Amino acid sequence: MARDVLTPPLVREYLTHQEKALDRSPHTLSAYARDLDAFCDFLDRRHGGRTWDFATVDRLALRAFLGELERRGLAKRSAARTLSAVRSFYRWLHVHHDIDSVAIRAAKTPRLEKRLPGYLLTEQVTALFAHAESVAAEDDPDAVRDLAMLELFYSSGLRLSELRDLDLGRLDLLSDQVKVLGKGRKERIVPVGRRASIALRRWLNLREEIVRRPGADRQAIFVGRTGKRLAPVTIQRRMHRLYDAIGADGMKTHSMRHTFATHLLDGGADLRAVQELLGHASLSTTQIYTHTSVERLKQVYRDAHPRGRGTARTEE
Question: Which pLDDT score is estimated for 73?
Answer without folding.
Answer: 83
